[in-house]
Amino acid sequence: MGAMTLGNPTSVASTRSLRFGAFVIVANLLLAAASIAALFFIVDSTRLPEMAVVLDSVKFLVVGGLAAMAIRSGVLGLRETADGSLRRRGWAIAGIVIGAVFGALTAGSLIATTVLALV
Question: Sign of torsion, CA 105 106 109 115?
Answer without folding.
Answer: negative
